[in-house]
Amino acid sequence: MPHLDKEQYKNQEHGAAPILNVRDLSVSFNNQEVLKDVSFSVNEGDVLAIIGPNGAGKTVLFRALMNLISYNGEIKWREDARIGYVPQKLFEKAELPLTVKEFFILKSKNLFFKDKQLVESIFHELKSVGLKPEILNQQLINLSRGQFQRVLIAWAILRHPNVLLFDEPTAGIDIAGEGSVYNLLHKLQDERGMTVLIISHDLNIVYRYADKVLCLNKEGLCFGEPKKALTSEQIERLYGESAFYHHHVH
Amino acid sequence: MNKLSDFMAKALFTITMSIEFLQNQQLLLIFVSGIFTALAASFLGAFIVVKRMALVGDVLSHVALPGIGLALLINIDPIYGAAAFLLVAAFGTWFIEKKTALPPDAIIGTFFTATLALGVLLVPNQELFESMFGNLFAIGFYDAIVIVITSIIIFVLTLILSRRLTLSIAAPDLAKSIGAKPDNSYLGFLLLFALSVALGIKLIGSILMGALTILPAVSARNLSWSLKSFLSFSVILGVLMTGLGIIIASAFNFPPGPSVILSGILFFIISLFFKKS
């Protein structure tokens, strides 16, 4: 992927420039390298799946992409990129008695006064993730895992970002539930033309939904279309002997 | 919920009846200062509790002692000495936590032992007791004005900070992802808290000021079903327990700190019956 500077971005049609370009990204914590020389790019409207074993630096990559941590190398978002983030989990702090509605209102740019526009779009976003408005008065801690994940997605797409970073939970959501969350992401991508970066643990999902895949194990081991990039040798290299656990066929 | 509102109404009634007995202007000053101190402290206390730093708040309040000692030495109002020390300690805690990844309770524990040692050396015995447990009659007209105005400012600033603060507590990464700065909200919060502790020293005393921030919030958590109800109950209970405590203190000539805290404990015990498991 050729290097593009700001001037070139401006001169180019939006559709032509990749929405994200990452070159030689490295992250270290306390002199320990967590990510090393990772390069890839994402086109607008694509689904990029990021796969790799535990501790491969997938969530770290997301945090670097959102500029939450310091890194070396280059991360270039197109100027019109607006990111929505779906974290793997929220808090373990059950002592915070937040209702779903209050959780949404926390996203308001308004620090104090009622944000009418936001409240209206909450209803809209709830509907698009398949939740009923009644859920608004429930407490976050009382939601089922599936409901909770949908709430997180609705939160992320509130105010219409054009990029979604989705950090999939490692465990706990059953296959049926999982399937429907992916259908949902697919729908969002279709209807809104969203670019989706998804950290996934299920290779079936990668083959079925992703346009590109990035295999990560501290370094970027492969990048490209799933069917070409994800060879069985590549999978074995990535996951080692446990590969067959991940590569179950439906 | 009916039981609760009945109870609230009765408590309010008792307090309004008692206010009529506050003919004495001194008592009125104390009462008003107490209510406003509680307003700010119990609102902040709600966040202290959900941020799991209840003990931090407790310990931070003792940092005021050497400030009080120094203020007495150079003959200025102890409240300013306390405020200065508390604000520096709050900033220090924030700064060291950011730089070293040490947990805040360990940092404040370090501050605490240092400042308590200094405090005992610097503060004369009588004043030491009063600054630890409060003294009803130390509140003058001017003090009351300062307390009321500062409490209102703290309350409003906390209100403005509360959405960002809540998001930072619930999900720091989400907060950052929408461009909020959790670090700054946390610093603002600590400074506001330090200021509110300073306000309470004359009346409640530094030892028990920590309890005034925590008690209403823990009782409120038992009663609440949402953030809004949690914050509201915390403030209402804080004001109630302080009002009741001051009335008891002045009636029986107790130091105000302990009677405020004990009436808070009473509310806490009552709140346990409302807790849905």
What would you note in describing this structure?
- The complex is a heterodimer of chains A (250) and B (277).
- By secondary structure, chain A is an alpha/beta fold.
- Chain A is 35% helix and 23% strand.
- Chain A contains ten helices and nine strands.
- A six-stranded mixed β-sheet of chain A has the order 5-6-7-3-8-9, with helices on both faces. In chain A, strands 2-1-4 form a three-stranded antiparallel β-sheet, with helices on one face.
- In chain A, α4 (116-128) packs across α5 (145-157).
- The longest helix of chain A is centred in the C-terminal third of the chain and has 18 residues, at 175-192.
- The two termini of chain A are 35 Å apart.
- Chain B has 277 residues and is mainly alpha-helical.
- Chain B has a domain at 28-210: Orthogonal Bundle (ABC transporter involved in vitamin B12 uptake, BtuC).
- Chain B is built from 13 helices and no strands.
- The model of chain B has no long low-confidence stretch (mean pLDDT 84).
- Chain A binds chain B through residues 63, 66, 68, 83-85, 87, 90-91, 93, 95-99, 102-103, 105-108, 111-112, 137, 139, 155, and chain B through 49-50, 52, 159-161, 163-164, 166-167, 169-171, 173-174, 176-178, 221, 224-230.
Number of separate helices of chain A: 10
CATH level 1 class label of one domain in chain B: Mainly Alpha
CATH structural fold name of one domain in chain B: ABC transporter involved in vitamin B12 uptake, BtuC
Helix content of chain A: 25-40%
Q: How many individual β-strands of chain B?
A: 0
Q: What is the averaged pLDDT score of chain A?
A: 80
Largest interface chains and counts? A-B, 26 and 26 residues
| Ends distance of chain A | 35 Å
Shape of chain B: globular
> How would a textbook summarize the main sheet of chain A?
6 strands, mixed
**Helix content class of chain B:** over 70%
Mean of residue pLDDT values of chain B: 84
User: Termini of chain B, distance in Å?
Assistant: 16 Å
**Which residue ranges of chain A are poorly predicted, with pLDDT under 50 across at least 5 consecutive positions?**
1-15, 244-250
Side by side, the strands of the main sheet of chain A go 5-6-7-3-8-9
Q: Tell me the radius of gyration of chain A.
A: 19 Å
